[in-house]
Amino acid sequence: MRRVAGQEDSSECVVRNCWEQWTREGTHAWKTGSGATRKTTRREDRRIVWQALVDPTVTRSTIRADVGIAIVPQTISRHLAEANLKSKRPFHALPL
């Protein structure tokens, strides 16, 4: 396991866990449904994206208050990133 971990540039623990899963289940794929459950519904996700599209200057706190659910601002940023919406900063060119 140490040799394989060195070749794959990962820890021995990762190699051991993959090997145990392979011997137990015959696969090394990630299980479906793993990870945290979503705190927002699809409808709330669409509303977050819609608000950002309608008013590009709206803040994450304003979106959170309008949606009406208890989520952290990072969740809003993640939903906007999933919709390929990125923050826009003004471009400052250097004077020539």
Task: Give an overview of the whole structure.
With 96 residues, the protein is mostly helical. It is 54% helix and 0% strand. The chain contains five helices and no strands. It is flat, with a radius of gyration of 21 Å.
Summarize the model shown.
The protein is an all-alpha fold. It has five helices and no strands.
Key traits:
single chain; mainly alpha; 54% helix
- The N- to C-terminal Cα distance equals 58 Å
> How confident overall, as mean pLDDT?
83
Shape: flat
Q: Give, in order, the helices and strands.
A: HHHHH
Radius of gyration: 21 Å
Number of helices: 5
Based on DSSP secondary structure assignment, what is the total number of beta strands?
0
The proportion of residues in beta strands is under 5%
The helicity comes to 40-55%
The biggest beta sheet reads: none
Structural class: mainly alpha
pLDDT < 50 stretches: none
Protein name: HTH_Tnp_Tc3_2 domain-containing protein
Organism: Trichonephila clavipes (Golden silk orbweaver)
Give the helices and strands, then pairings.
Elements: H1 2-8, H2 12-25, H3 42-54, H4 60-67, H5 73-82
